[in-house]
Design goal:
The protein is an alpha/beta fold. It is built from six helices and eight strands, in the order H-E-H-E-H-E-H-E-E-H-E-E-E-H. Strands 5-8-4-3-7-6 form a six-stranded mixed β-sheet. A two-stranded antiparallel ribbon has the order 1-2.
Length: about 230
C-alpha cells in the first residue's frame, strides 16, 4: 500500500510539469479618429480630434490606439509640435529595424557627421527595445523572416551649420519629407558615393537587396544638428 502511495505521488508530480499551449486572440476592439467634437457636450472642452474605441467588427480599418493617434488630427503625435506647414498622411508603413537604412549624411564637419550617425544608432536601438526579447548591446532581436511584409525605409539627413552649441539661441528648426519610392529608385539611393568639398557628403552603402522591397525615402534637413535630430 505504501509503494502504491509513492507511485501516485510520482505520477501527479510529473503531471504538474506538463507544458500548456497558449495563444492570443485578436482584440475585439479598434480605434477610429473622431473629429466631431462629440465630447464637448459632456466635458465642455473643444477637442479637434481624438481616438475612440469601437468594435472591430464595425470598423473599416482595424488598428490599435497608437496607430490611430499617429494619423489623428492635423499633426498626429509629432513632437516637438511643428509650427510650420504640416501635411499628414493617413497611411502607415510597417517596417522592422533591418529595413531601416541611413543612406546619406550631409554635414559641414566630421564632428557633426559623427553625431548624426550616433543618433541614428540610438533610434535603431529604440526599435530594438520594442521587442521584449531584446537583451542589449545593439543585437537585433527581430527575425529575418518576420510575419509582416515590411517596406524599405531609407533616410537622408542634411545639416547646414557646424556649430554644436546648445542654448536658448540655438535654431532647432527642421523639415522632413516622406516620399514613396520605386524599387529602382531605392536601389540607386543605396549605392556608395562620396563628394569632396567644403561640405562633406557621405553615402552609406546599405545592406540587403533594396530592389526587392519598394518602400519610402525620408529626407530630414536642419539648420543645426539639434534640428535634424528632432526630425
Amino acid at each position: 500500500m505504501q509503494s502504491l502511495w509513492f507511485l501516485l505521488l510520482a505520477f501527479f508530480a510529473g503531471a504538474t510539469h506538463a507544458e500548456i499551449a497558449s495563444f492570443r486572440l485578436p482584440s475585439p476592439w479598434s480605434f477610429e479618429c473622431d473629429k466631431t467634437n462629440s465630447s464637448f457636450r459632456t466635458s465642455g472642452h473643444l477637442i479637434p480630434a481624438r481616438c475612440v474605441k469601437v468594435p472591430s467588427s464595425s470598423s473599416e480599418k482595424v488598428q490599435g490606439l497608437q496607430a490611430c493617434k499617429m494619423t489623428c488630427g492635423s499633426k498626429g503625435t509629432l513632437w516637438p509640435t511643428p509650427t510650420g506647414q504640416v501635411q499628414l498622411s493617413s497611411d502607415l508603413v510597417h517596417f522592422i529595424p533591418q529595413d531601416f537604412r541611413v543612406v546619406s549624411v550631409s554635414a559641414p564637419s566630421e564632428d557633426v557627421s559623427n553625431m548624426i550617425n550616433q543618433f541614428a544608432d540610438v533610434f535603431r536601438e529604440y526599435l530594438y527595445m520594442m521587442n521584449p526579447d531584446y537583451e542589449g548591446e545593439y543585437k537585433n532581436p527581430f527575425s529575418e523572416t518576420p510575419f509582416i511584409n515590411g517596406k524599405t525605409v531609407q533616410v537622408s539627413i542634411s545639416v547646414e551649420s557646424e556649430d554644436l552649441t546648445l542654448d536658448t539661441e540655438t535654431d532647432e528648426s527642421y523639415s522632413i519629407s516622406i516620399q514613396r519610392m520605386s524599387a529602382n529608385e531605392l536601389s540607386r539611393n543605396s549605392q556608395t558615393d562620396r563628394c569632396e568639398g567644403p561640405k562633406a557628403t557621405q553615402r552609406v552603402k546599405s545592406k540587403g537587396k533594396a530592389e526587392e522591397a519598394p518602400g519610402i525615402h525620408i529626407t530630414v534637413s536642419g539648420k543645426t544638428y539639434y534640428g535634424a535630430r528632432h526630425g
